[in-house]
Structure formats: structure tokens, C-alpha cells
Amino acid sequence: MAEKLMHDDAGAVVAAILTAAKGGDMTAARLVLERILPARKGCPVVVALPDVQTATDVPSAFGAIVAAVARGDLTPEEAAAIGAVLEAQRRAIETADHEQRLSALEAERGKAL
Asked: 62 and 19, same structural domain?
């Protein structure tokens, strides 16, 4: 019920807050900035990585990340985030590879029976 009441008046409430913020109400301005236009949590980073098609390609990609940190092109936090993406990609590659191997083994076993 509370959500319905808020939904019905949401436009009027937002308009009132915007009007107050424009009029110099710093509390309203902070509310607008924090809620309507929140601070960005991260920003895009560009780093050259080798193509990663197999799990054996991952170590060279991690090497490129380490080199970028050493040069100062990436922060350790950015490197950790990119590393987590690479690790997820490695797991996805290995999962697909295991699935293909299992399917091949099951097919071979089916022919033998």
C-alpha cells in the first residue's frame, strides 16, 4: 500500500525536490545528487590484452595486467577487477571444454556398447 501511495505521488515529490534544490535548499540538492544522479562507482579503463580463446591464453593476459600496473597504467584495484573478469572467462572456457570432452567420452562409450 505504501508503494502505491508513493508511486501515485512520485512525480509531484520529485518535482518538489527539484524545485527546492533549484531554490538553494542544500538538503534537497544533496538528495537530488545522491539519489537521482548518484556518483559513478567506477570508470572505464583501457588496457591492451592478448586475445583469450583458451585457458592457456590466460597467463599472458594476467602478465599484461601486471605489466600495466608496474607501468602505472592501472591501479591495483583496477587490475584486480580485470583479473576477476579474466578468471571468470577462464572458468567459462574450462567449463565449455569439460562439457565437450564429456560429450565426446559419452559418445564413444555409447558406440562401444
From this structure: no
Question: In Å, how far are 47, 51, 69 from 73, measured between CA atoms?
Answer: 8, 19, 6
18 shares its domain with 60: no
Determine the Cα–Cα distance for residues 49 and 77; give it in Å rounded to an integer.
17
Q: Are residues 32 and 59 in the same domain?
A: no
pLDDT digits (tens, 9 = 90+) for 45-95: 899 999 999 999 999 999 999 999 999 999 999 999 999 999 999 999 999
Domain region containing 88? 55-112
Contacts of 47 (CB under 8 A, 6+ apart): 64, 65, 68, 73, 74, 82
Domain count, the chain: 2
pLDDT bin (cut points 50, 70, 90) of residue 113 is low
Question: What phi and psi, each to the nearest 5 degrees, are found at residue 46?
Answer: -120, 125
Instruction: Let me know: does 6 contact 14? Beta carbons within 8 Å.
Output: no
